[in-house]
Amino acid sequence: MSSLQEVAQLLRATQSPITVIGHTNPDGDTLGSTLAFGLGLQKMGKKVTMLNIDGVPEIYRFLPESDRIVIPEATHFLNRVVVCVDCSDPKRAGDEVIPWLARAGTVINIDHHISNEFFGTVNLVDSEAASAGLIIMELLKELGVMIDPDIATCLYVSLVTDTGSFRYSNTSPRAHQAAAELLSTGLDQDVVNRELYEEVPLTSLRLIQAGLDNLQLSPCGKVAWMTFNRQVMESLNAKDEHLEGVVNYAKSIKGVEVGILFRESGEQLIKISFRSKSTVNVSDLAAKFGGGGHVRAAGCRYRVTLAEAVENVVAAALEAVLETK
Ligand code: 5GP
Ligand code: MN
Fold first, then answer.
1. Considering every ligand atom, which ligand is closest to the CA of 26?
2. Which of 32, 109, 275, 276 fits 158 for a cystine, CB–CB 3.0-4.6 Å?
3. Domains of the chain, earliest start first
C-alpha cells in the first residue's frame, strides 16, 4: 500500500501524459472521480487522457467537461502512467483493457472497494472512504491543486451518488466534511440535484414499472429480487444506465435484508446487483459468483441462464441471511 504523499510524489515527477480510467457501466463516482482527477492534473500542467470503455451515459453528461472522456485505445496505455479509479480489479476497467493495462509503464490503483485486489504498481486503497472521489479530493489537496467549482461538482456528484444522497452506512463525518468543503467552493447544488433526481429518463421509470411487476419475495421475507430479460430491455429501448438505482426498490421493502437485480446481458451472461440493509456482507456474496464491491452494495457477472442465476443466487442470499441472523 502506498501513501497519499508517495502517490503525489510519483505524479509530480511524471513528465509523460497521464491516463485516467474508470469502470464499465459507469456511475457518478467513477465518472466524477475520473473528471475531477483529470481536470486537477491538467491544472498542474500535466497532459491527461480520460477514458471509459462505455463512454458517458446521458444522465451524466451534465458533469463539467464530460465530453473529454473518450473510449480507450491501446495507445492510451503503452508505457504511460495509468490511473484506475473506482476499480476493484483490472476487469472492472473493461475486458478489452486488461492486455493494454499490462503494457502500461505504471498503474496507479485508486479505489475504495473492500474487495480491491491491489493490482496496481502503486495502490492507494481506502475502504473507509465513502467514494473514490473522496480519495481523489484528498490527493488533489496533497498535490496543492485548487479545487474549483467544476472539480468540486465532479467530486460532490461522486459523494452524493455513492452514499445514496448521504443515506447509506458509508456516510461518515469525513464524507459530510468533504461535502461541506465542496459546497463552499460555490458549486451549483441546484443543478446537481435537478440533473440527478428531477430529470429521470422516462425509460428508467418504465423499467421500474417492469421490475415491480415481476418483483419476488422469499417466503421468509428477507430477500427480494427483480429480473430484466433481454425482451424487456429491448422493448423499452433501455440501456444499463437506465437501471441505475433500481435495485434499491427491492431492498427498500419493509423486512427485506437483501435486494437483488438480475439483468440478462447476453444469452448466458447475467449482470447482478446486490444491496443489503444491515447484516449481510454482499461483497462476500457477490464474490461467490466472481464479483465484489462493498459490504452494502456489490455486483457480479455470472455466465449462466437467467433462470439458473436466479435459482443459485437467491439460494446463496438466503443462506447468507440465515448465517448472519
Ligand atoms: P452496481 O450494482 O451498482 O453495478 O454495483 C455496485 C457495486 O458493486 C459497485 O461498487 C461496483 O463497483 C461493484 N460491482 C458491480 N459489478 C461488479 C463486478 O462485476 N465485479 C466486481 N468486482 N464488482 C462489481
Ligand atoms: Mn465508488
1. 1
2. 32
3. 4-197 (3.90.1640.10), 202-323 (3.10.310.30)
